[in-house]
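G., the chain you wanted modeled:
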Amino acid sequence: MHPLRLKLLPERLAICRLEASDRVPGWATADGFLSVTRTADELSIVCPERSVPAHVRQEPGWRAFQVEGPLPFSATGILAALAVPLAAAGISIFSVSTFDTDYVLVKDSDASPAAAALYASGHSVEL
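Predicted structure as tokens:
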């Protein structure tokens, strides 16, 4: 896998869990990053932390590294190229993929060490 170009997005994100039968709430669709995944078991939403009501089950305090895209669907090893150095540095991740690219989320407190680990593994990182 060749080196990737990454950009750390500025906003703090929250990962939320709702019931599988719930509608996507209006607060989730405000401006900013949004990822919605529905399965038979849950509705997961990743959105700006500032948008999430206090009563919602959430894991706040995440930051996203965006991989410069678009990435071809035939590309392999992209997530591994990011996850392996982060795992070696003891940094947990939450990944989101879109049609054009991938995002790796880390806790806000891990953003600087994550950038250093990614840079040390040969990737370029814009903060």
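The CA atoms of residues 14 and 60 lie 4 Å apart.

Shout if anything looks off.
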